[in-house]
Design goal:
alpha/beta; 8-stranded parallel beta sheet; about 15% strand; two-stranded antiparallel ribbon
């Protein structure tokens, strides 16, 4: 035991000296009627060196295609399923039996993501009981390599600027405290969706494009002793600050969505802008992790999204894809890194 502890300490010391790096994945949204078959999509992930995939909901064809791919999978539980699952253990066991159990031996599940962007909202109070129910199923099966978590957006904040002033909104604080308490106990990270694009597009006069795109030559936002050269770091640190203010210091973060549309909003959107944002995000995640507030944090990330999706609302929403669904060609180059 002592030996193990010593080795662990030595490894930590070693890790602290190197710059932390984290893996990057891509969201496989499937709201399109012209998407390639799942087996081809899995091949595209592999050919492009994309080692992690987030799925918004379980689909047997996709899960079958993922068998033996070694791609790490974050699998979503649909928002509309949460209410029933919060009180009905059989519904949770049924979901597990249908979507995890048959694939356990050859699909590398990493996360079960209970709901997407539900705080604040009518369904927010169902998140924690469903997380607890899934944890009970996993504990019963002694599966400690799958993390149960949820995914929230910046809508949880009452204030988020500057990052050190960040707090959860009154209508989110209580539920966030409960969810974070559970994540602290299970030692699993919170998933956060962050879109500097929307912050820029909604206020281009005050938000600098280079700050949103990781291209600013120096510090743009000075927050006490902490200097921010890009908005994504500020958004991540807003979460660290808001968590700290409710007494949570040990829950990690994963950027479960970020991206930039290649079309749909005049000159705020272009393949060049999208390419710049996503390449820099990928570089940020895979080579220089940590933030001004938490330099040692290791924060994995997922780009949104694999394909342009023609069944989403018209405009920018249809144009977040890295690839064209019909030809499988890149809209602009990002991968392989
Ligand atoms: C997780 O653990 C289960 C049970 O031990 C195993 O079958 C599965 O291959 C493991 N998954 C990964 C990704 O290591
Ligand atoms: C968009 O066009 C306006 C007007 O020509 C210009 O001021 C602005 O810098 C352009 N923005 C981008 C992102 O190219």
């Amino acid at each position: 035991m002592m030996r193990l502890v010593q080795i662990a300490i030595a490894l930590c010391a070693l890790a602290a000296t190197a710059e932390a790096v984290a893996p990057i994945g891509v969201n496989y949204g499937r709201l399109g009627d012209n998407l390639p078959p799942p087996a081809e999509v899995v091949q595209m992930f592999q050919q492009n060196g994309i080692t992690k995939m987030r799925l918004f909901d379980p689909d047997v064809n996709v899960l079958n295609a993922l068998r033996n791919s070694k791609i790490g999978v974050a699998l979503g539980v649909r928002n509309q399923d949460l209410q029933l699952m919060s009180t009905n253990m059989d519904a949770v066991k049924g979901w597990f039996a249908a979507n995890i159990e048959p694939f356990l031996n050859d699909v590398a599940f990493e996360f079960i993501v209970v709901g997407n962007e539900l705080v604040p909202g009518e369904l927010a109070n169902f998140i924690l009981p469903v997380m607890q129910n899934f944890q009970a199923v996993l504990d019963g099966r002694k599966l400690d390599n799958i993390s149960v978590t949820t995914c929230v957006a910046t809508s949880v904040f009452g204030n988020s600027y500057p990052p050190s002033a960040s707090v959860f909104a009154d209508n989110s604080r209580e539920v966030m405290i409960k969810i974070l308490g559970f994540l602290a106990y299970t030692q699993n990270p919170l998933l956060i969706n962050l879109y500097p694009y929307f912050a820029y597009a909604s206020d281009p006069v005050n938000v600098r494009l280079d700050y949103a795109q990781f291209t600013a030559p120096g510090v743009v936002v000075q927050d006490g002793p902490l200097g921010y050269q890009n908005m994504l770091d500020a958004m991540i640190d807003a979460f660290f600050w808001a968590m700290e203010k409710v007494g949570v210091n040990n829950v990690g973060l994963v950027v479960s969505e970020t991206g930039w549309p290649s079309a749909g909003n005049g000159n705020f959107t272009s393949p060049t802008l999208a390419s710049t944002y996503n390449k820099n995000f990928a570089k940020r995640i895979t080579t220089k992790n940590g933030t001004p507030k938490k330099p040692d944090a290791v924060i994995p990330g997922f780009i949104f999204a694999m394909f342009n999706e023609n069944q989403k609302p018209a405009g920018v929403e249809q144009n977040f894809g890295l690839f064209l669904p019909t030809t499988k060609q890149p809209v602009y180059p990002v991968f392989p890194l």
